[in-house]
Amino acid sequence: MKGVASDRVRLIPNEWITMPDGVRLAARIWLPEASDSEPVPALLEYIPYRKGDLMAPTDARIGSWFAAHGYAYLRVDLRGAGDSDGVLLDEYLPQEQEDGLEVLAWIAEQPWCTGSLGMIGFSWGGFNGLQIAARRPPQLKAVISMYSTDDRYADDVHYMGGCLLGVRQLSWSSVMMANNALPPDPETVGDRWRELWLERLDRTPPNIDTWVAHQRRDAYWKQGSVCEDYDAIECPVYMVGGWSDGYVNAVLRFVERHRGVRKALIGPWAHWWPQDVTPGPTIGFLQECLRWWDRWLKGKENGIEEEPTVRVFMQEPWRPEAANDPREGRWVAEDTWPSPRIEHRTLQLGDGVLGEGPHGEVELRHRGELRHGALAGVWCAHGSPTDYPPDQREEDALCLTFTTEPLDERLELLGRPRLRLAFAVDRPLALVAARLCDVAPDGTSTVMSRGALNLTHLEGHEEPRALVPGDRYTADLEMNVVGQAIAPGHRLRLALSTTYWPWYWPSPEPVELTVFTGEGSVLELPIRPPSPSDADLAPFEPAEQGPGLERVILESVAPYRRIRRDPVAGTIELEHNEDGYQRHRLVEDGIEVGWASVDRLKVHEDDPLSAKVECERRVDLGRGSWQVRIETFSTMTADADAFHIDDRLEAFEGPRRVFVRTWSRSVPRDHM
């Protein structure tokens, strides 16, 4: 990748921004060399992931590039994270937004800033960009929000379709507990580092307690969900997502429902910056951002707002082998969304078949197996080859499946498949999980889209109601957005089950599902006809970013994902080390950092109450004689009435343990 000369940029390693209550937030700032005499607009990334060590290499590449292209770039640690004062008590609290407003006001008043600001970030930084934009700060002129959500209940690491995410909920809580328990850097905060560290250790909570306590879409989730009032956001917003990412649904939903200036971009990417990500192809994403900032922060009439509202990478058929990097496909665009060009084709569910029908009504019964989901891959891929689901034939065999005849012509899907299901179940609590697969002529099954619905949430996620066993119901289930071509001779397969462990926490009892085929059970597919204008789209520039920080790798372990099945004992255990382990030293200031994480997800094939998640984290941080370590261990189980959660947090300074705390609590199940 093309680099940027460092002599064009001035770096301020740390600057304090004081909040009204006296808490200081730590900022790292990259400035164009002439900004003292020629003020520039500024860009803010506002996240908890430690500007001085964990994210320093990436921050340097992004910040230096934007500074070399005429923008100040600030990376600010949230209250209670990294080098900032305080304690980070939870995600996306009103305090975080209030602090963000103060940060924007501070930036706008600096002599090197024109007073015109943008916010950029992915994941947490994408979330708070939307949330702060909804507060309408006058300094904020535009936002780029990557891999984020407009609805914290519908699309995040906690719940999907009203189902509790077993694969991510505890895992993410353990990540944040380890991150939030780390101390600030003594070279930044001085002798106060130990005082600040001990306060964090004493007050850092396991966030999962709050998340599991709110199993419905209540006021807790509505706070910070900009879908509650899209019109509160008045500045232009560029939404960015990836087909391999967990947050792609929000991209098209936002541009459909927000009435202001907005654009959408979806690539094949996992959860990382699009100029440096797998699966590719990568693009000149920073240059694309620059066009957005130039238009809205500098007022340049570059025409970006006249371009199509939606641009996506239409994936060609691909085999389920690792990341398939780069993916084959082409860029396509739609002027508006929802696009009037999208055709909605309805296929009826028949007796094992899927087609335009008509199919008579047949009652098909299926009892879900807890083995289903073992080959699901991860909920949100980060680019490791271990993240992706393999051939789904073994999974399909555990489901109630409906398969089309081989296609006579090529199809291209763009949008959300929707399933209407006429059904009955034999238990008061149940879920249904759906997968849409592309079946090649040799039988290989590749998952394209997934979805789930807690069936007690048929009338919405705010007021669940237990089902009456044997009664007939209708469920409407939206599957994940898909952008995928299906080749002639391939078949489409819909697979249904009442289990999908460990993605979704299982219902307390085994469930038998009855599907009533025919007119009451249909799959609606969003078909995109080819457009001649696709060939006229201007290509993206090659990927660029600024120079990174020189690192010395001290220790490295590759990521892995293992599945252990004991057919005699009837148990399945998935062990996943998503990021491997790497301990490195930043040559610039000698800081050493290492992060290791392992998740184990266990179940007995015949007992949904045996489901168990275990998460271990270890973070090493140090410089010379200053060495600290955080270790966490978390477990989650459930019986018929409650979820049971245990956490342990230990902190070490050198070889000496300086802190330990354990938590053990139970949270009643609420129609889960």
How does this model look, in words?
The two termini are 48 Å apart. The protein is globular. It has 11 helices and 34 strands. Mean pLDDT is 96; it is low at 1-5. Strands 1-2-4-3-5-6-9-10-11-12 form a 10-stranded mixed β-sheet, sandwiched between helices. By secondary structure, the protein is α+β, with helices and mostly antiparallel strands.
Which secondary structure elements does this structure contain, and how are they paired or packed?
Layout: E1 9-18, E2 24-32, E3 40-47, H1 56-68, E4 72-77, H2 94-108, E5 113-122, H3 124-133, E6 140-146, E7 159-160, E8 163-164, H4 169-180, H5 186-189, H6 193-203, H7 208-213, H8 219-222, E9 237-242, H9 249-257, E10 262-267, H10 285-297, E11 310-315, E12 329-334, E13 343-349, E14 354-355, E15 363-367, H11 393-396, E16 400-403, E17 411-415, E18 418-425, E19 431-439, E20 445-454, E21 473-478, E22 482-486, E23 491-497, E24 512-516, E25 518-527, E26 551-557, E27 560-566, E28 571-577, E29 581-586, E30 592-604, E31 607-623, E32 626-638, E33 642-653, E34 656-668
Parallel strand pairs: 3-4, 3-5, 5-6, 6-9, 9-10, 10-11
Antiparallel strand pairs: 1-2, 2-4, 7-8, 11-12, 13-14, 13-25, 15-24, 16-23, 17-22, 18-21, 18-24, 18-25, 19-20, 19-23, 26-29, 27-28, 28-30, 29-30, 30-31, 31-32, 32-33, 33-34
